[in-house]
Amino acid sequence: MWTGYHHRAVHELHERYGPVVRIAPNNLSFINPQAWKDIYAHKKTREQEMIKDPEFYVRNPDAPHIVSGNHEEHARYRRLYSPGFSLRSLREQEPLIQGYVNIFIKGISRACENGETPVDMVQWFNFVTFDIIGDLAFGEPFGCLEKGATDWLLKLNQIEEAQMHFRVIQHIPLLGRYAREIVNLMLPSDAVKGAEGHRKLTREKVTRRVNYNVSRPDFMEHILRQPEGKGFTFGEMLSNSATLIQAGSETTATLLSGALFLLLQHPDKMKKLVDELTTSFSSDEMMTIENTDRLPYLAAVLEEGLRLYSPAVPGFPRQVPKGGATIDGKYVPGGVRVPGPTKTAR
C-alpha cells in the first residue's frame, strides 16, 4: 500500500475473502452494486445520510471545496459551477479545447519525428489536459504543450505522492491523528512544499482571472457574474480552483493513458475504433464534441477505460451514521468508515 498500489492490495483481498473486507481498523470495503447504492444514494432523512469521512476529506486551509464540502456547501458549489459544465458552455468552450488538441497533435508528431522516435504518451496526455483545465479554470494555460512539464505540474505530482502516504498512515492506530506531521517529516522538503506552492500559484492565477474583465466561456464566468454575497468568497475560489486543477487534469490523463494502452494491447479493438472514426467523418472539422458523442464504440472504449483504469481507485469513503446502517444486506455499526473501491467494484 505504501508503494502506491493500494488498489491492487484491496482487489486481492476481495478476490480472496469476498465482497466485504476489513482493510484497516474501523474500515470496511464493499464492492457489490447494492452496497454502492446503500452508501452513496440520497436517504429519506439527513440523519440516515452517510457523511463524507472527515478523516479522508482534509479541509483546504483557504475554504471548503466541492469535494470536501458538507451537504449544504457541496450543493451550493455545484449550483454555481453547473452553468460552466452545461452542454451550452461545452459548445462555447469547444474552439478553445480544439485549439489545444491541435497543438497536442502537432507536438506529438514533432516529438516522435513522424513515427521514428518513441514518445511518453502519459506525459503528453498530462500536458494537454493540464493546459486545457488551466485555461477553463483560470483563463490562461500553463504552457505545458509548448514548454513541457512546468513547475506547477511537478508540484501536483508531489502532492499526489504526499496524499498517497497520508492515506496509509491515517489507518494506523495511534498514528492516524498525526498523519500530516509524519508525512511532512518523511517526504523530501520539495514534496512537502508542493502543496504550499500549489496554493500560492493558484492565488496568483485566480487574482488575475478576477481582475480580467472580459467575458469568456470558462468555469469562473458565471461565478464572477453573481451579485455580492451570492457567489464564491475569494477563499472558496482558491480552494475550488486548486481542486479543479488537480481533479480535472490528472484524472483525464489517466483515463486516456489507460484506454490507449488497452487499445495497443488489442489491435483488433484499435482497428474497430479507427474504422468507426474514419467512416463517420469526412473531414477533421466534422469531428466535433457533439458528433463524437454519437459514436457507440468510442463511448464503449472510454467506459471500459474508466472501469479498468479508474482515476479514483481508492473510492470516496463515507461514515456510517450513529444509529448504524444496513449495507448490502449486512448491519454496520455507526462510525465505521466505508469506502467503495472503484477498481474492484462489480
UniProtKB/TrEMBL annotation:
The keyword Metal-binding applies. Pfam families: p450. Keywords: Heme, Iron, Metal-binding. Its cofactor is heme. One of its GO terms (molecular function) is oxidoreductase activity, acting on paired donors, with incorporation or reduction of molecular oxygen. Belongs to the cytochrome P450 family. This is Cytochrome P450. The lineage of its organism: Eukaryota, Fungi, Dikarya, Ascomycota, Pezizomycotina.
